[in-house]
Amino acid sequence: MSASSSSSVLRDLPVLLVAVVWGSSFLAVQRVAEPETVVAMLVLRFGLVLPLLGLAAWRALRKLSRAEWLGGAALGLVLSGIFLLETYGAVHTSATNAGLIISLAMVLTPLGESALGRTAPPRAFLAAAGLAVLGVALLTGDGGLRPPMLGDLLVLGAALVRSAYVLAMARTRAIRNTDMLAVTWVQLAVATAVFTVVALAVGPSPWSVALSYGAGQWAWLLHLSLFCTLFAFFVQMWAVRATSPSRVSLLLGTEPLWAAVFGITLAGNRMGPLALLGGALVLVATEWGRRAAPAPRPASGAGEDAPDTEGASPEPAPV
After folding, report:
1. Which is nearest to 43 in space by CA: 191, 228, 192, 188?
2. Distance CA 270, CA 174 (A)
3. Confidence of residue 241 (pLDDT cuts 50, 70, 90)
4. pLDDT tens across 121-137, in order?
5. d(CA 228, CA 266)
6. Cα angle 264-132-35, degrees, rounded to a multiple of 5
7. Cα separation of 57 and 39, whole Å?
8. Is the pTM of this model over 0.70?
């Protein structure tokens, strides 16, 4: 192996590891949360991350303008909706289904981009989108005519909102040239505040949930906080500078594959032949759609210097 090839592999490994830990996040959620403790768990998860991320972002946070704080806060409200839908969905369906359905955001986002730009997407992309829909129908119905489970619909809703979030992030002028570390902290802080307020009215308190956790649950919670959130963010920040955004996107696109691996091997998810076919179609369709998607265009008035947000934000890829 040449020195350049070896260096390329070493740069790819951390990004691939992010995809692996994101794939495991759906199983992790099922290990630490029940339907009634979802909100409390989200408070704990991000409450552990915010101080550490805040230390790293402190200097950048002090330089934010009022408009940048408001722009980040608005995106944080959307982010809180994504996490609530994804996490509630993950505890009401299988880890495999959740990981595969959320990957539809990769197809939905370019469709939204085309709609906003009033341009027709390539035919190959539309074919990929149709294949993805067929795959989800087979996956969630397990090859039968049964309607999808509640969890499947919640995760599908999260994929739709995630797509809207990505499009909004690319078009929010207030944060266009803002330090991504600081913007991410503001978004996560606002989302955590939303979870804290909701926790006052829904389910047990975060404190009581924390006290009820055993060693195994704390290990999974720390995995969600430190690896699926903090580690993933810093790897992406490094990767988009060390390699191309397209390469990062390609590697992170393996997340649903790892979700299926963890769901089947560790969670014991069972899938019938047609459901397996549906899962395979989702994987093929999302990869095909990524390759066939129209090239992103800068938002109106952004100019050529508009930052590329793909791969730069740590969330909301995992639950």
Report:
1. 192
2. 46
3. low
4. 888 888 888 888 888 77
5. 18
6. 50
7. 26
8. yes
Give which of 253, 249, 228 is closest to 240, Cα–Cα: 249
DSSP letters of 62-98? HT--HHHHHHHHHHHHHHHHHHHHHHHHHHHS-HHHH
In 10 A of CB 181, how many CB atoms? 19
- DSSP class of 121: P
The rounded distance, in Å, linking the Cα atoms of 87 and 228 is: 14
Question: Contact at 8 Å (CB) between 23 and 99?
Answer: yes
Highest mean pLDDT among 4-13, 99-108, 142-151: 99-108
Residue 51: is its pLDDT beyond 80?
A: yes
Q: Helix crossing, 232-242 with 245-252: angle to 10°?
A: 140
The pLDDT of residue 302: 41
Count of other CB atoms within 10 angstroms of residue 280: 15
**Neighbour tally for 43: CB within 10 Å:** 23
CA distances from 64 to 72, 189, 196 (A): 10, 15, 24
φ, ψ of residue 178 to 5 degrees: the values are -90, 150
Q: Is the pLDDT of residue 170 over 70?
A: yes
Q: Who's near 81: CB < 8 A, 6+ residues apart? A: 161
Sole residue written with tokens 């995630």? 162
Separation between Cα atoms, residue 210 and residue 188, nearest integer Å = 20
Q: What is the pLDDT of residue 315?
A: 46
Closest by CA position to 99, among listed 267, 316, 319, 247: 319
Round to the nearest angstrom and report the end-to-end CA distance of the chain.
Answer: 37
Token output for 66: 């009022």
